[in-house]
Design goal:
alpha/beta; 5 strands
């Protein structure tokens, strides 16, 4: 990791780091794209804790952003996968529209996609998260909800108010964090 604000010990730096991923209403970005689920994962001692912040309805966005901001406060840096070009710019838009400053933890950001491309780009056909999971880690997700189906599931949840549509979204986000 290197040095994070005075932490030269990688274990100390890791304890100040939060892993971050979002699920959204689409990939277009911009003002019409909402974060419907923000997941964070961090270490408390040897335990990895995951917290998920869900957008129950559009009018609840300020509450989601406030809860997410509070959860990010103890952390000094974030780790994402493709967050530099998607998650963080989208959050910047959502916080700006809400009239809130961006959480400080998002200022120090390590996007694992770029490291993966440098290390595995010539060995693998794809450096997507699922490709890296299966090729490098030997992990195969069972019954994973494809990311492109998440917006439709969320819109169905909003229409029908049936939480059963959310299970796959929550699991997908959790697996991305892990």
């Amino acid at each position: 990791f290197g040095t994070f604000r005075g932490y030269s010990d990688p274990q100390a730096a890791l304890s100040q780091t939060v892993f971050f991923d979002t699920e959204t209403t689409g990939l277009a970005g911009g003002t019409g794209t909402y974060v419907i689920l923000a997941g964070i994962g961090y270490f408390e001692g040897k335990e990895f804790v995951i917290k998920q912040f869900f957008l129950k309805d559009y009018d609840r966005e300020p509450a989601l952003l406030a809860e997410l901001d509070a959860a990010l406060q103890p952390h000094e840096a974030v780790v994402t996968f493709n967050g530099r070009t998607f998650d963080v710019p989208l959050l910047t838009t959502r916080f700006t529209l809400a009239g809130s400053p961006l959480p400080a933890a998002l200022e120090i950001h390590w996007d694992l996609l770029y490291s993966a491309r440098r290390v595995y780009g010539l060995q693998l056909k794809s450096c997507s998260l699922s490709s890296l999971e299966s090729s490098i880690l030997g992990v195969q997700r069972d019954d994973d909800l494809p990311g492109d189906e998440i917006p439709a599931r969320y819109f169905t949840y909003l229409r029908e108010q049936d939480a059963a549509y959310l299970e796959g979204i929550m699991e997908h986000n959790r697996d991305d964090l892990l």
